[in-house]
Amino acid sequence: MGARLLPALAERGFAVVATDLSELPEDRRVHCVATAAVDLLDAAAMTALIRRHPPTQVLHLAALLSSAAERDPDLAHRVNVDGTLGLIRICRQELPTAPLFMFPSSIAVYGLPDPAAKAKQGAVGEWEWTIPAAVYGCNKLYCELLGALLSRGPGARLDFRAIRFPGLISAETLPTGGTTDYAPEMLHAAAQGKPYSCFVAATTRLPFMTMPDAVDALLALAGAPAERLTRRAYNVRGFSVTAAEIRDETLRHFPSARIEFDPVAARQAIVDSWPADIDDSAARRDWGFAPRHGFTEALADYLIPELRNRYKPTLADTAPRPPAR
Ligand code: VAH
After folding, report:
1. Is the beta carbon of 84 within 6 A of some atom in ligand 1?
2. How many C-beta atoms surround the C-beta of residue 133 within 10 A?
């Protein structure tokens, strides 16, 4: 998300200070007035950074995603919960006024008990099924609830706002450690002519959106007048599709793509607990959420053109190969 968010913030005239576990690459540093390689869990270093560059807005993207969190719950708690609450604590103690704190939450906060209940439920509203069935969803829901609590009342020293993102599909970057990763992985593999084995069943249905729509949504909520908001955490989505529908649409653009389905039980259990779709009417009503991309437009207008450009064969790739010796 950061790869798309940094240029979007710079284009809007923000003076961006970006931090990550390791130094940012040059193509991301160019959008920032300052960058720093800081461990989120190093409270002294994070405090020094906040003192050096006191922010008016914090967009906190650092997280261990769902599959990685399930494999290492202790690390997930340290990064996703201690890291988030530690950053909120530093902001509340160091900054003269309550900062806007943007928190990418997830549909992982929802937990449907079984595939039959998931199919029967259809779209889930923000107040429904918040009984996460995996570590990452528990991490995200707890941070949402505490962020909302600390933002309550006239003397609150925090303006916490969260978006419960669906699966995100980017042409620029590939996620790691997520359980919706199969969608971007399938498309990037097809664009490179590589075979892909999908780790969820073909019938798996989830909500998704494109990364441009996700970044636009985050910035729209950040810019919304506080008095317009009726909640601290909002659903947003672009479209609800099955893994088979993603395969079929991918094949329409890359007919020679080789895509198979080989579900991994632990990851299938996670996606089976997530909703087939989410109701984003509150975001549309309160702060004008309006995604650009439905499913076919996501591929035709954004993903396929960008992926073709990204993976177009270089001259070296297409030059006639010298005869084998
Ligand atoms: C994950 N992409 O797969 C994230 C997301 C809806 C899931 O939060 O963990």
Report:
1. no
2. 17
Among the listed residues 110, 136, 182, 196, the single catalytic one is 136
Residues listed for the chain: 325
Measured from the Cα of 104, ligand 1's closest atom is 8
Confirm whether 136 is a catalytic residue: yes
Token pair of 194, please?
Answer: 């590589």
- The Å distance, Cα 180 to ligand 1 centre, comes to 5
Ligand 1 centroid to residue 116 C-alpha, Å: 21
65 Cβ below 6 A of ligand 1: yes
- The conformation of residue 278, written as its DSSP 8-state character, comes to E
The reply to whether ligand 1 has any atom less than 6 angstroms from the CB of 178 is: yes
Cβ–ligand 1 distance for 66 under 6 Å, the answer yes
Q: In this structure, are strands 100-106 and 57-59 parallel, antiparallel, or unpaired?
A: parallel
Structure tokens at 25: 């690459």
Q: pLDDT per position in the chain (325 positions), as tens?
A: 999 999 999 999 999 999 999 999 999 999 999 999 999 999 999 999 999 999 999 999 999 999 999 999 999 999 999 999 999 999 999 999 989 999 999 999 999 999 999 999 999 999 999 999 999 999 999 999 999 999 998 889 999 999 999 999 999 999 899 999 999 999 999 999 999 999 999 999 999 999 999 999 999 999 999 999 999 999 999 999 999 999 999 999 999 999 999 999 999 999 999 999 999 999 999 999 999 999 999 999 999 999 999 998 755 555 555 665 5
Q: Are 91 and 158 in contact (CB under 8 A)?
A: yes
pTM of the model: 0.95
Nearest protein Cα to ligand 1, atom 7: 167
Phi-psi region of 272 (alpha: psi -120 to 50; beta: other; left: phi over 0): alpha
